[in-house]
Design goal:
Blueprint lengths: L8 H15 L2 H10 L6 E6 L5 H8 L6 E7 L2 H10 L7 E5 L2 H7 L6 E7 L7 H10 L1 E20 L4 H16 L2 E2 L2 E2 L5 H11 L3 E7 L2 E3 L10 H16 L7 H16 L4 E12 L3
Parallel strand pairs: 1-2, 1-4, 2-3, 4-5
Antiparallel strand pairs: 5-10, 6-7, 8-10, 9-10
Length: 284
C-alpha cells in the first residue's frame, strides 16, 4: 500500500483496535475485572470513546454483560460512527457528542458512574487539571481505568539518519508539550510517568500499573490486520505536527516522510511507542 492520498481518522481508529488489543497491559486489565463492584447493571463512562472500540473490547474480554455504558467524545463525526457500528438505539448503550469539561459541568450534581475509562486520552489533556472533575463523575470508591498513556518514547526503525531521527523525535515530543486547545494546555509527552504522581496527589489509590507499548512490525508475510494503514497515519501525523517548525527544514521533513512511507509500503518499518496503563480507585 502506497501512502494514502487522503486519511480517515475513523479508519485509523479501527486499525488501532487490533494494535491496542495486543498492547493493553493484561495485569492491569485483570486487576480491573477483580476490582469491579458486584452491583448490576454496572455503570461505565468512557471519555474520548471514539468509534466505540473499547465497548467492543468490553464485550469480548469477559467484562460483565450487564452494564449501562455511556461513551462521550468531542468529535460528533466519530460519535455518529460509534452509533452506527453498535446499531443504536439499544438498551444500556449510549454515545454522546460532548467534551470532558462539558460533561463535568453538566453532571456536577447529577449522575455518577462505577467505572470511568479513558483510553489513549489522558495525554491529550492537562491531566492535573481534569483529574478532580473526573473523580467527581464517580461513585465513592469508583474505578479509574486509564490506558495507553504516552510516556516519552517514539521509535521508528531502521534508522535513516541518527541525528535527524533524534531531532525529529525531540521536536515531535515538544509539540505535545506545547499543545494548546481553546486557550488551555492540552497534553504532555510524558503523561504516563506524570500520572504515577498525579493520581495519588488527587487522592486516587493506585491499584495496578504496567506498560502498554505499541510495537508494530511485519510478520514474515505482511503487517497484521490494517497495521500498514496505521503506520502511514502515524507518519502523516508526525509530518503534520512538525511542518513549519524552524528546527527542521521542509526538504528534510518531506524526504524523511517519503522514506518512512516507503518503508511501511515495503513492510520494512518498525514502530514503537512507550505507554503506561493504570487502574486507580477514587476516594471512598
Amino acid at each position: 500500500m502506497a501512502a494514502p492520498a487522503e486519511y480517515s481518522f475513523e479508519r485509523y481508529l479501527a486499525a488501532k483496535r487490533a494494535i491496542d488489543d495486543r498492547s493493553l497491559n493484561l495485569h492491569v486489565w485483570q486487576a480491573l475485572l477483580a476490582a469491579l463492584p458486584a452491583v448490576r447493571p454496572l455503570q461505565v463512562l468512557e471519555i474520548g470513546a471514539g468509534i466505540g472500540t473499547m465497548l467492543d473490547r468490553l464485550h469480548a474480554w469477559s467484562f460483565p454483560a450487564e452494564l449501562d455504558y455511556t461513551g462521550i467524545d468531542a468529535d460528533a463525526g466519530v460519535v455518529e460512527q460509534a452509533r452506527a457500528r453498535h446499531k443504536l438505539p439499544q438498551p444500556g448503550i449510549n454515545f454522546e457528542a460532548i467534551d470532558l469539561d462539558g460533561m463535568i459541568a453538566r453532571e456536577r450534581s447529577g449522575r455518577k458512574w462505577h467505572v470511568l475509562i479513558a483510553h489513549a486520552f489522558m495525554d491529550l489533556v492537562d491531566a492535573e487539571r481534569v483529574l478532580p472533575g473526573m473523580l467527581r463523575l464517580l461513585h465513592p470508591g469508583g474505578l479509574l481505568y486509564l490506558t495507553l498513556n504516552f510516556d516519552g518514547v517514539t521509535t521508528l526503525l531502521p534508522v535513516l539518519d541518527a541525528e535527524l531521527d533524534a531531532r525529529l523525535e525531540r521536536i515531535y515530543h515538544q509539540t505535545m508539550d506545547q499543545r494548546v486547545v481553546r486557550g488551555r494546555r492540552a497534553g504532555h509527552s510524558r503523561t504516563g510517568r506524570q500520572l504515577l504522581m498525579l493520581l495519588p496527589a488527587a487522592g486516587v489509590t493506585l491499584l495496578a500499573s504496567g506498560s502498554s507499548d505499541w510495537v508494530v512490525h511485519a510478520t514474515p508475510s505482511s503487517y497484521p490486520d490494517d497495521a500498514e494503514y496505521f503506520l502511514h497515519y502515524i507518519i502523516h501525523t508526525m509530518q503534520g505536527a512538525l511542518a513549519g517548525n524552524p528546527q527542521v527544514s521542509s526538504a528534510e521533513l518531506d524526504a524523511w516522510a517519503a522514506q518512512r512511507h516507503g518503508q511501511a509500503a515495503n513492510q520494512a518499518l518498525v514502530y514503537v511507542a512507550h505507554q503506561l496503563d493504570f487502574l486507580g480507585q477514587a476516594p471512598q
